[in-house]
Protein backbone atom coordinates (compact mmCIF):
# COMPACT_ATOMS: atom_id res chain seq x y z
CA UNK A 1 0.00 0.00 0.00
CA UNK A 2 1.37 3.45 -0.92
CA UNK A 3 2.39 5.82 1.86
CA UNK A 4 -0.23 8.33 0.72
CA UNK A 5 -2.95 5.70 1.07
CA UNK A 6 -1.71 4.82 4.56
CA UNK A 7 -1.89 8.48 5.56
CA UNK A 8 -5.43 8.79 4.25
CA UNK A 9 -6.53 5.72 6.13
CA UNK A 10 -5.17 6.97 9.44
CA UNK A 11 -7.92 7.66 11.90
CA UNK A 12 -8.51 11.20 13.13
CA UNK A 13 -8.02 11.76 16.85
CA UNK A 14 -11.00 10.55 18.85
CA UNK A 15 -13.25 12.89 20.79
CA UNK A 16 -11.81 11.51 24.01
CA UNK A 17 -8.26 12.15 22.81
CA UNK A 18 -9.09 15.73 21.86
CA UNK A 19 -10.76 16.34 25.22
CA UNK A 20 -7.75 14.92 27.05
CA UNK A 21 -5.37 17.16 25.12
CA UNK A 22 -7.57 20.19 25.84
CA UNK A 23 -7.48 19.41 29.57
CA UNK A 24 -3.71 19.11 29.44
CA UNK A 25 -3.32 22.43 27.62
CA UNK A 26 -5.73 24.12 30.04
CA UNK A 27 -3.80 22.81 33.02
CA UNK A 28 -0.47 23.79 31.50
CA UNK A 29 -1.76 27.29 30.72
CA UNK A 30 -2.97 27.78 34.29
CA UNK A 31 0.26 26.59 35.87
CA UNK A 32 2.63 28.33 33.46
CA UNK A 33 0.77 31.59 34.07
CA UNK A 34 0.87 31.13 37.83
CA UNK A 35 4.38 29.72 38.32
CA UNK A 36 6.25 30.47 35.11
CA UNK A 37 7.93 27.93 32.85
CA UNK A 38 10.71 26.97 35.25
CA UNK A 39 8.39 26.68 38.24
CA UNK A 40 6.04 24.25 36.51
CA UNK A 41 6.77 20.54 36.11
CA UNK A 42 5.18 18.04 33.79
CA UNK A 43 4.09 16.12 36.86
CA UNK A 44 2.28 19.25 38.14
CA UNK A 45 0.48 19.57 34.81
CA UNK A 46 -0.52 15.90 34.81
CA UNK A 47 -1.89 16.18 38.35
CA UNK A 48 -4.01 19.25 37.58
CA UNK A 49 -5.27 17.72 34.32
CA UNK A 50 -6.08 14.43 36.05
CA UNK A 51 -3.99 12.32 33.67
CA UNK A 52 -0.86 10.22 33.74
CA UNK A 53 2.48 11.91 33.09
CA UNK A 54 2.90 9.75 29.98
CA UNK A 55 -0.22 11.31 28.47
CA UNK A 56 1.20 14.80 28.91
CA UNK A 57 4.29 13.73 26.97
CA UNK A 58 2.13 11.98 24.37
CA UNK A 59 -0.04 15.01 23.65
CA UNK A 60 2.44 17.80 24.34
CA UNK A 61 5.92 16.42 23.79
CA UNK A 62 8.81 17.94 25.76
CA UNK A 63 7.89 20.75 28.15
CA UNK A 64 9.24 23.39 25.76
CA UNK A 65 6.99 22.07 22.96
CA UNK A 66 4.00 21.99 25.29
CA UNK A 67 4.69 25.59 26.27
CA UNK A 68 4.72 26.58 22.59
CA UNK A 69 1.41 24.78 22.02
CA UNK A 70 -0.16 26.60 24.96
CA UNK A 71 0.88 29.97 23.53
CA UNK A 72 -0.04 29.22 19.93
CA UNK A 73 -3.53 27.77 20.44
CA UNK A 74 -5.05 31.14 21.43
CA UNK A 75 -2.69 33.24 19.30
CA UNK A 76 -4.40 32.27 16.03
CA UNK A 77 -7.99 33.18 17.02
CA UNK A 78 -6.70 36.35 18.67
CA UNK A 79 -4.85 37.32 15.48
CA UNK A 80 -7.97 36.62 13.42
CA UNK A 81 -10.03 38.92 15.65
CA UNK A 82 -7.49 41.72 15.34
CA UNK A 83 -7.11 41.45 11.58
CA UNK A 84 -10.86 41.18 11.06
CA UNK A 85 -11.36 44.34 13.12
CA UNK A 86 -8.72 46.13 11.07
CA UNK A 87 -10.21 45.02 7.75
CA UNK A 88 -13.69 46.09 8.89
CA UNK A 89 -12.30 49.48 9.86
CA UNK A 90 -10.64 49.92 6.46
CA UNK A 91 -13.72 48.69 4.60
CA UNK A 92 -15.90 51.29 6.32
CA UNK A 93 -14.41 53.88 3.99
CA UNK A 94 -13.84 56.45 6.71
CA UNK A 95 -10.49 58.08 7.35
CA UNK A 96 -8.24 55.92 9.47
CA UNK A 97 -6.79 57.31 12.68
CA UNK A 98 -3.96 56.02 14.83
CA UNK A 99 -6.32 55.54 17.75
CA UNK A 100 -8.76 53.48 15.67
CA UNK A 101 -5.97 51.21 14.43
CA UNK A 102 -4.62 50.79 17.96
CA UNK A 103 -8.10 49.88 19.16
CA UNK A 104 -8.27 47.06 16.60
CA UNK A 105 -5.18 45.56 18.17
CA UNK A 106 -5.79 46.28 21.86
CA UNK A 107 -9.51 45.77 22.35
CA UNK A 108 -9.86 42.13 21.20
CA UNK A 109 -7.18 41.19 23.73
CA UNK A 110 -8.54 43.22 26.65
CA UNK A 111 -12.14 42.20 25.93
CA UNK A 112 -11.11 38.63 26.70
CA UNK A 113 -8.38 38.93 29.29
CA UNK A 114 -10.21 41.48 31.45
CA UNK A 115 -13.83 40.42 30.97
CA UNK A 116 -14.03 36.76 30.01
CA UNK A 117 -13.54 33.59 31.98
CA UNK A 118 -10.36 32.53 33.76
CA UNK A 119 -8.58 30.78 30.82
CA UNK A 120 -8.15 34.02 28.88
CA UNK A 121 -7.05 35.89 31.99
CA UNK A 122 -4.41 33.25 32.59
CA UNK A 123 -3.36 33.54 28.95
CA UNK A 124 -2.93 37.29 29.32
CA UNK A 125 -0.62 36.82 32.30
CA UNK A 126 1.26 34.13 30.41
CA UNK A 127 1.87 36.37 27.40
CA UNK A 128 3.23 39.01 29.76
CA UNK A 129 5.78 36.43 30.97
CA UNK A 130 6.69 35.41 27.42
CA UNK A 131 7.23 39.00 26.33
CA UNK A 132 9.57 39.64 29.26
CA UNK A 133 11.89 36.71 28.53
CA UNK A 134 14.05 36.74 25.40
CA UNK A 135 14.47 32.97 25.42
CA UNK A 136 10.91 32.80 24.05
CA UNK A 137 11.82 35.00 21.11
CA UNK A 138 11.09 32.24 18.57
CA UNK A 139 7.63 31.67 20.04
CA UNK A 140 6.86 35.39 19.84
CA UNK A 141 8.15 35.49 16.27
CA UNK A 142 5.94 32.57 15.30
CA UNK A 143 2.77 33.50 17.16
CA UNK A 144 2.69 37.30 17.31
CA UNK A 145 5.16 39.04 15.02
CA UNK A 146 3.29 38.51 11.71
CA UNK A 147 0.21 40.30 13.05
CA UNK A 148 2.33 42.97 14.71
CA UNK A 149 3.99 43.66 11.36
CA UNK A 150 0.60 44.27 9.73
CA UNK A 151 -0.28 46.87 12.35
CA UNK A 152 3.13 48.53 12.23
CA UNK A 153 2.71 48.85 8.44
CA UNK A 154 -0.68 50.52 8.89
CA UNK A 155 0.62 52.88 11.55
CA UNK A 156 3.66 53.76 9.45
CA UNK A 157 1.37 54.80 6.60
CA UNK A 158 -0.57 57.04 8.95
CA UNK A 159 2.63 58.64 10.25
CA UNK A 160 4.91 58.90 7.18
CA UNK A 161 7.31 61.32 8.85
CA UNK A 162 8.19 58.76 11.52
CA UNK A 163 10.83 56.09 10.99
CA UNK A 164 9.84 52.44 11.25
CA UNK A 165 12.02 52.22 14.36
CA UNK A 166 10.00 54.99 16.01
CA UNK A 167 6.70 53.37 15.11
CA UNK A 168 7.92 49.94 16.23
CA UNK A 169 9.20 51.34 19.52
CA UNK A 170 5.89 53.01 20.26
CA UNK A 171 4.09 49.81 19.30
CA UNK A 172 6.14 47.69 21.70
CA UNK A 173 5.61 50.25 24.47
CA UNK A 174 1.87 49.99 23.79
CA UNK A 175 1.98 46.19 23.95
CA UNK A 176 3.86 46.41 27.26
CA UNK A 177 1.15 48.63 28.67
CA UNK A 178 -1.56 46.31 27.41
CA UNK A 179 0.09 43.28 29.01
CA UNK A 180 0.71 45.15 32.27
CA UNK A 181 -2.97 46.03 32.39
CA UNK A 182 -3.87 42.36 32.05
CA UNK A 183 -1.26 41.08 34.49
CA UNK A 184 -1.55 43.71 37.20
CA UNK A 185 -4.65 45.85 36.76
CA UNK A 186 -5.23 45.49 40.51
CA UNK A 187 -2.25 47.79 41.06
CA UNK A 188 -4.16 50.72 39.62
CA UNK A 189 -6.78 50.53 42.33
CA UNK A 190 -4.11 49.97 44.97
CA UNK A 191 -2.10 53.02 43.93
CA UNK A 192 -5.24 55.13 43.54
CA UNK A 193 -6.53 53.83 46.90
CA UNK A 194 -9.90 53.40 45.27
CA UNK A 195 -12.25 50.59 44.35
CA UNK A 196 -14.06 52.67 41.72
CA UNK A 197 -14.43 50.96 38.35
CA UNK A 198 -12.67 52.64 35.45
CA UNK A 199 -12.65 52.33 31.68
CA UNK A 200 -9.17 50.87 31.64
CA UNK A 201 -9.25 50.08 27.92
CA UNK A 202 -10.14 53.67 27.10
CA UNK A 203 -7.49 55.02 29.45
CA UNK A 204 -4.85 52.80 27.88
CA UNK A 205 -5.84 53.96 24.39
CA UNK A 206 -5.66 57.61 25.52
CA UNK A 207 -2.18 56.97 26.89
CA UNK A 208 -0.97 55.12 23.79
CA UNK A 209 -2.43 57.61 21.34
CA UNK A 210 -0.55 60.42 23.06
CA UNK A 211 2.59 58.29 23.20
CA UNK A 212 2.53 57.63 19.47
CA UNK A 213 2.08 61.33 18.83
CA UNK A 214 5.11 62.15 20.95
CA UNK A 215 7.44 59.34 19.88
CA UNK A 216 6.62 59.60 16.19
CA UNK A 217 7.72 63.17 15.71
CA UNK A 218 4.61 64.99 16.82
CA UNK A 219 2.45 63.52 14.06
CA UNK A 220 -1.26 64.21 14.52
CA UNK A 221 -2.65 60.77 15.46
CA UNK A 222 -6.24 61.76 14.83
CA UNK A 223 -5.70 63.33 11.41
Automatic annotation (TrEMBL):
Pfam families: TetR_C_30, TetR_N
Ranges in coiled-coil conformation: none
Annotated PROSITE patterns: HTH_TETR_2
UniProt keyword terms in alphabetical order: DNA-binding, Transcription, Transcription regulation
DNA-binding region ranges: 41-60
Record-linked InterPro entries: Homeodomain-like_sf, HTH-type_TetR-like_transc_reg, HTH_TetR, PsrA_TetR_C, Tet_transcr_reg_TetR-rel_C_sf
Domain HTH tetR-type: 18-78
The protein, known as: Transcriptional regulator, TetR family
Taxon lineage: Bacteria, Pseudomonadati, Pseudomonadota, Alphaproteobacteria, Hyphomicrobiales
